[in-house]
Design brief:
The protein contains 9 helices and no strands. By secondary structure, it is mainly α. The protein starts with a helix and ends in a 14-residue tail after the last helix.
Amino acid sequence: MLAKWFKENIWAAAAITLVRIYVGWLWLEAGWHKLTGGFDATGFLNGAIGKPVADRATQEVLFPNYTYFLEHFALPNVKIINFLIPVGETLIGIGLIVGGLTLTAAFFGILLNLMFVFAGTVSTNPWLLALGFLVFTAGANAGRFGIDAYLLPLLRKGWTKLTAGRKHKDGEDGQGFGGKVLPH
C-alpha cells in the first residue's frame, strides 16, 4: 500500500520532486566543477588501486573484482574516464532537475555513487545513494512534475509503433513464440 502511494500519489510526487531537484543540483554542481576545473581521475584511480577497501581485521580486499577493473580498465583508459565522469555527473544533474528521463538519471547516479563507494570514497556518496534510490523507487511519479510528464507518453507511443510490426512476425496474436501467451 505504501509503495503504491509513493508511486502514484500527487503529494508523494511533489515531495520527491523536491528531493529530485536537490540531488540533481548536487550532481550538476559536482559535474560542472569537474568540467570547468580540469578534472583528472588518475590520482583518484591510483589511490583506489593502491589502498583498496579492505577488512580492518584481516586486511583482505573487499572488492577485488572492482580493484581489478580499476587497475586493468579504468586506469589504462583514464582519458575516457576523465570525459565520462564530469559529463555523466552533469547530465545526471540536468536530468534530475528538469525531470527528464528521471529514472535513467537516478539509475546512473546510483551506479556512480556505488562505484565511488567501492573505490573507498565515502564523502556524500552514501547520502546521495540513499536519495537517488528514493527517487528511483518512486518510478514515473518522480518525473510527474517535469519533462517526463510529456516525454514518457511520447516514448510509449513511439515504442508501441515500433513494436507493432512484431504482431505479424511473431505469430497470430503478437504474443511471441508462435502464438503462445507468455506469463507477465
